[in-house]
Amino acid sequence: MASNYVLVCQNEDCKARGSGELLDKLSQGLKDSDVEVKPYMCFGGCQAGPNIVLYPQKVWYCGVKQNDVDEIAAHAKGGAPVERLTHGIDDGLKDLIYQLLDAGLF
Amino acid sequence: MILFPEGKPTRRETFDEYRASGGYEALGRNLSPTAILQEISDSGLRGRGGAGFPAGRKWAVAAETTAIPRYVVCNAGEDEPGSIKDRILISHRPHLVLEGTILAAHAIRASHAYVYLNETYDDCFNRMHEAVREATVAGLLGALAITIHRAPTVYVAGEDSAALEVLEGKPPLPRQKPPYPAAAGLFGKPTVVNNVETLANVPPIIRNGASWFRTHGTPDSPGTMLFCLGDEMNHPGAYELPLGTSLRYLYENVGGGLKNGAELKAILPGGPSCAFLTNDQLDVPLDSESLKKAGSTLGCGVMRFYSKDTCMVEETLRIARFFARESCGQCPACRMETNMLSAMLERIQQGKADAALLDQFQKIIDFNRGKGYCALINMPGPPILSALRLFRGEFEEHIRGSHCSGGL
User: What would the pLDDT profile of B1-41 be if each residue is shown by its tens digit?
Assistant: First the structure.
């Protein structure tokens, strides 16, 4: 089992904004690393999607575009967080989702 | 009883039989809209579709507007698992339902009434179609137009504003409220949407008076209600009982207990969106206030009884899956919540969850409360949280991966 995850929301809104391609690209970009890229059912941040959460770092990226993928992959491998994509998600929602992830729901 | 003389459906009433037993007498009195509305308000009749909102208050909202035209919708979109009461009322007493619809239309001065009918109910469609024809020929409709409209068989299509969308030719998606349909409903005009059973109570109330109606039931929940018993019971079916009757009477005397003498463990007294009760709560009276005090709700009267050997984790998962499937998907929070709850319960049921997950349900439900256009987002909460509270041991057994005893 991997110890680092990149969770990519695959619910309707995020998918309509290209999260399927984001999942493919990230999987491709991280295939030789110890990071596991996984689809996630929904983070509830639909208006701000596509949403991607790095766990256990607990960094939430929203409004992700195809050309953000390389930077996110770099962060997942231990690089710097992509600060500009971390705004716009309610703190209460973040807490809720992080607690669920801590409880093993992914 | 008010809806069925013998307290249960026995025969399919004809137009002549209905008239011979006092049918259309209420309509024949040519009461003013104000007088009809006053009588219904005085009767304390509450909606029988699940929410229990006072019918008189809903009608008053529509009657007090100045907008025209106005509409009445008889909601027979029935898609609640286990509910058969709308179907039974229309197939057995179509004219009672029709007269109630006409009276409601008079009360709010509506020009058009719709019977919004589950599309799979062919028999009801034919019965209602025939009833409308008979009433038209007999000159009972006056200037009122009546249309029977087929309702899609998805759960949310029975929600009042989703019904209006369907009547407007659109997909069954609930509207954001306010405005409520009584103020701005069909085509933006004042619209009273009432459940079939609610409207069926109207002619007897107008004929016999509000004080007569109040001799049935309790002061806060006057009248009777149709309770649906499933085939886990010795005597399944729809039964009319005065509100305030004890759950024990319904379970033992009317339903005859569970099949094969199985021992009772739990009760879901009002459909999948209400909280579970346990077998030591059988003496609760069946009315909204008492059930509220007991921690649950009366809903639309669909009763499920669970035997001792039922796995409550599986039952709860079944309910969570139902809401995840039936969420229409237009409100992100509802989509997320219903999917999440269902996925969490699935994990637990399969023994693949951490015990910490049990504490997350309340948080998710609290976080999402009221964040949808309709009430569906609030529906998984009561059954799931009550199951976790009442049958926690079973959830823990599943998490430990040990065999589920299904016992308390």
Answer: 999 999 999 999 999 999 999 999 999 999 999 999 999 99
A47 contacts in B (CB within 8 Å)? Answer: 332
Looking at the fold, whether B336 and B363 belong to one and the same domain comes out as: yes
Q: Give the chain A residue whose CA is nearest to the CA of B328.
A: A12
pTM, full prediction: 0.90
Q: Which two tokens stand for residue B20?
A: 């011979």
- Is the CB of residue B364 less than 8 Å away from at least one CB of chain A? yes
* Cβ contact B218:B244 at 8 Å: yes
Q: What is the least distance, in Å, from the CA of A83 to any CA of chain B?
A: 25
- How do residues A53-70 score in pLDDT, each as one tens digit? 999 999 999 999 999 999
Topology of domain A4-102 in CATH is Glutaredoxin (3.40.30)
For residue B115, what are the contacts with CB-CB under 8 A and spacing of at least 6?
Answer: B73, B74, B76, B97, B98, B101, B128, B132, B146, B147, B148, B149
Q: Are residues B75 and B194 in the same domain?
A: yes
B 272-311: CB under 8 A from A: none
Q: Does A16 touch chain B (CB under 8 A)?
A: no
